[in-house]
Design goal:
alpha/beta; Rossmann fold; seven-stranded mixed sheet; five-stranded mixed β-barrel; 22 strands; globular; binds S-adenosyl-L-homocysteine; binds iron/sulfur cluster; binds FE3-S4 cluster
């Protein structure tokens, strides 16, 4: 998952509904699942008579969909809540609601400690939002942070945030059962549950009909997707590999991505399915977290360094052109220089194409917070993180340079930020390419030859097939 999305996502392009409707402004932090949840929220609100606005100063209600994964994610949100408090002084009727993982983690403490907050709604309670908003309009503060074993919002078509209409997120499951010792997600998102595959395929078909060319199937651990249903006397079972195939078959021109894979559950079957369908993207995000087996055990990741490298070998064998990205946590409890060096050596051995890298941030009430001491000093964490970022910079550069002279099919996703004469798009390997637009349009596939690269992107030019 793209956890680097430290910038807020907002609905940039729309005010939906009639002019007389109350307008809601939604700001989103955190992972792609949160972005997709905000799309579900927008859809629920519109069906209940609200409009969505991209302009804070027009808003009758401000909703902030929050992330609790690291302390700095929460600090940022508190800053925003304080700012909305200032704003409310000038417009006392405005309602402020906190949604998402911080709402779930902090519950009524948010209402007690932040007087500006009128609503606190956890990730499984969004169907209640219209009722809670109406109550808040009457001056009543509201909270619903119940977690569910069933809720997947399967019947709700999310209102899409992507303004280009090319790429959409589709949640295939919610929650997480893995209990990695550092992680707050099992507490904020509840138990793992998979969504009905028929509703997933239906949503993907609707997206294709609406012109979308790429879907990203989302879950905290997509490889443990599992659905079972009774068909007459037989039990029909759908695992992630089956689901991937079902989605790939919707349309050969639809590019299919997925995130996130857990190394302990990524099967060869999934890799063979990826190899079989050209429209399944050649990219796997496989968070390793650490290169030291001892640290992995303390993290409760349930694989060793060797297990991880075995998975990498399987990917290289079955999918030679597959890009591999990862997440790394540095400075976890008891991490020594030897452990740190093992992370560096694993990174070099794998040659990750890109990585999201974080300093360990202790989260209250997690297993690590309860049983281990956050004993790596901050300056050591910073130094190790810098080392990891520098090494990844080199590996990413090598990965891009290796693409120079090669030809890729690229899906055009939008205009380049720097020049209106250029488009950007991504290769199947999820690498961004910038190139002169020619006579093409957003949403088309083109063939590109890579001619160079910058630290951030590949540079290319369109060629005939
Ligand atoms: N479900 C996904 C990702 C979950 S959170 C997975 O299992 O891979 C995304 C990333 O945030 C994690 O992969 C991890 O690298 C990082 N992360 C999670 N908790 C953290 C913490 N307490 N401190 C620092 N980084 C953390
Ligand atoms: Fe957190 Fe681990 Fe679940 Fe990922 S798999 S969400 S890191 S508990
Ligand atoms: Fe996502 Fe952050 Fe919650 S990463 S699941 S929004 S804690």
């Amino acid at each position: 998952m793209d956890f680097n999305a430290d910038d807020a996502n907002i609905f940039e392009n729309m005010v939906t509904g009639g002019a007389d409707r109350a307008k809601v402004y939604i700001e989103t932090y955190g992972c792609q699942m949160n972005v997709n949840d905000s799309e579900v929220v927008a859809s629920i609100l519109i069906a209940n008579g609200y409009a969505i606005t991209s302009k804070l100063d027009e808003a009758d209600a401000i909703l902030i969909n929050t992330c609790a994964i690291r302390e700095n994610a929460e600090t940022r949100v508190f800053g925003r809540i304080d700012l909305f408090g200032q704003y409310k002084k000038g417009k006392p009727s405005v309602i402020v609601g906190v949604l998402g993982c911080m709402a779930e983690r902090l519950k009524d403490r948010l209402l007690e400690e932040k007087k500006v907050v009128d609503l606190v709604v956890g990730p499984d309670a969004y169907r209640e939002l219209p009722v809670l908003l109406r109550a808040a309009e009457e001056g009543q503060k509201g909270i619903n942070v119940l977690l569910s074993r069933e809720e997947t919002y399967a019947d709700i078509s999310p209102l899409r945030l992507d303004k280009n209409g090319v790429s959409a997120f589709v949640s295939i499951m919610r929650g997480c059962n893995n209990m990695c010792s550092y992680c707050v997600v099992p507490y904020t998102r509840g138990p793992e549950r998979s969504r009905d595959p028929h509703s997933i395929v239906r949503e993907v078909q609707e997206l294709v009909s609406a012109g979308y060319r790429e879907v990203t199937l989302l879950g905290q651990n997509v490889n443990s997707y599992y659905w079972e249903e009774q068909k007459g006397l037989l039990k029909h079972k759908v695992n992630f590999s089956d689901l991937l195939e079902m989605v790939a078959l919707v349309d050969p021109r639809l590019r299919v991505r997925f995130s996130t894979s857990h190394p302990k559950d990524l099967t060869d079957e999934v890799l063979y399915t990826m190899a079989m369908y050209e429209n399944i993207s050649n990219h796997i995000h496989l968070p390793v977290q650490s290169g030291s087996t001892r640290i992995l055990q303390l993290m409760n990741r349930k694989y060793t360094r060797e297990d991880y490298l075995n998975r990498i070998n399987a990917i290289r064998r079955i999918l030679p052109d597959c890009a591999i990205s990862t997440d790394i946590i540095t400075g976890f409890c008891t991490e020594t220089e030897v452990d740190h060096d093992m992370t560096l050596s694993l990174m070099s051995e794998v040659g990750f194409d890109f990585a999201f890298m974080f300093k360990y941030s202790e989260r209250p009430n997690t297993k690590a917070a309860r049983h281990l001491s956050d004993d790596v000093p901050d300056e050591v964490k910073t130094r190790r993180l810098t080392g990891i970022i520098e090494l990844q910079g080199k590996l990413s550069q090598q990965s891009k340079e290796a693409d120079i002279g090669k030809r890729f099919e690229v899906l055009i996703e939008g205009e380049s930020k720097k020049s209106r004469d250029e488009f950007y798009g991504r290769t199947s390997q999820n690498k961004v390419v910038v190139f002169p637009r020619g006579s093409h349009s957003i949403g088309e596939y083109v063939y590109i030859v890579v001619t160079g690269c910058t630290p951030a992107t590949l540079i290319g030019k369109i060629v005939k097939e």
